[in-house]
Amino acid sequence: MHGLFNFLVRASALEWPFRARTVYDQEDFVARARDEWNRDWNEAPPIPSELQDTLRDHFLAYYAWADGLADQFGSLYRNVFSLMYLLAPLAVIGALLAEFGPSITGGEGMVWSWVALTELAVLAWILWRYRQASSSRYHRRWIDYRSLAEQIRHLVFLWPLGRPTRTLRFQGESATEAEEFTWIAWYCRAIVREVSLCGGVMTQEYLGACRSLLFDRVLPSQIQYHIRNEQRMHRVHHNLHVVATSLFAAAALIAVVHLGGLWYEGRLSLPYMLGQMATTRISHVPEPTFVTLGILSVLFPTVAATVHGFLSQGDFWNIARRSRRMHEDLSALRERLADHASTGRGRNPRRPQSG
Question: Residue 16 and residue 66: Cα distance in Å, rounded?
Answer without folding.
Answer: 28
